[in-house]
TrEMBL record:
The keyword Cell membrane applies. InterPro entries: TM_pro_TauE-like. The keyword Transmembrane helix applies. It is found in: Cell membrane; Membrane. It is a multi-pass membrane protein. Belongs to the 4-toluene sulfonate uptake permease (TSUP) (TC 2.A.102) family. It holds the Pfam family TauE. Keywords: Cell membrane, Membrane, Transmembrane, Transmembrane helix. It comes from Chitinibacter fontanus. PANTHER family: MEMBRANE TRANSPORTER PROTEIN HI_0806-RELATED. One of its GO terms (cellular component) is plasma membrane. Its main location: membrane. It comes from the Bacteria. This is Probable membrane transporter protein.
């Protein structure tokens, strides 16, 4: 158990630093790293992806508040957008977690691989959608929130890879879109964690120290380590060539996704 916790502390150090440095969700790093930890721990392979997704979302539920507070202090959160999109986010993420409970580990890994390649392409191509419209009305915001929440529950992220491009296309300034996305990530994490706890209840083959599909030792290790490293990453962002580092991170995503794809094939 000590070895597992130390491994998860290492995951938290890396994920926290990257989140602070590049503003990317740590889930894209946490999920594949946890798959390796679970394999080392001897956990049944058919549970790996569900445990990794649930635990990744649970870490965001803890670490997301600090990010929101920092962005709010700079006036970079559109709380009107958060209020409009959150009901759809909550419903979509919770329902998505229930659907994920019915999908096999292989099926969820295929979804993760496709999404990782998508995010990597975004970064490599520096894709920025043209601001061509205004934010939609309440009904459409609820629908968009449902889509963002559901996809996020299937890949274990806070939704920034989807919500930032959406808001940017709706004439929301990039910095404000990023700050608002951090606020949207909190209900995604809370609803996703609750959904995976509920869908994992009664699964007899789950290992010890789990709450539903959330693996508590991994959650504790990652949260403890990611807090201080996120601050260091944010400080380093002002001194390091972030555009180049984003391309390096995209290459890392491609490697992680390709490794998972090789295993699937």
């Amino acid at each position: 158990m000590i070895t597992i916790i130390l491994a998860c502390l290492s995951v938290g150090l890396i994920a926290g630093f990257l989140a602070g440095l590049l503003g990317v969700g740590g889930g894209l790093v946490i999920v594949p790293a946890l798959l390796a930890v679970f394999q080392f721990a001897g956990i049944a392979p058919e549970l790996h992806q569900h445990l990794a997704l649930a635990t990744s979302l649970a870490t965001i539920a803890f670490t997301g508040f600090a990010s929101v507070r920092a962005h709010h202090a700079k006036g970079a959160v559109r709380w009107d957008v958060v209020r409009q999109i959150t009901p759809g986010i909550l419903l979509g993420t919770f329902v998505g977690a229930q659907i994920a409970g019915l999908i096999s580990t292989r099926g969820l890994q295929w979804i993760f691989v496709a999404f990782a390649y998508f995010v990597a392409a975004q970064m490599l191509l520096d894709f920025k959608p043209k601001a061509s419209r205004q934010l939609p009305k309440m009904g459409s915001m609820l629908g968009m929130g449902g889509v963002i929440g559901m996809v996020s529950s299937w890949v274990g992220i806070g939704g920034g890879s989807l919500s930032v491009p959406f808001m940017s296309a709706c004439n929301v300034p990039v910095k404000t879109a990023i700050g608002t996305s951090s606020a949207i990530g909190v209900p995604i994490a809370l609803a996703g964690t609750a959904g995976y706890i509920y869908s994992g209840m009664g699964i007899a083959s789950l290992p010890a120290y789990t709450l539903g599909y959330v693996y508590i030792p991994a959650l504790a290790g990652i949260v403890i380590a990611s807090f201080p490293m996120a601050k260091l990453g944010a400080a380093a962002a002002h001194r390091l060539p972030v555009p180049i580092l984003k391309k390096c991170f995209a290459a890392l995503l491609i490697l992680l996704a390709s490794k998972m794809l090789w295993t699937l094939l």
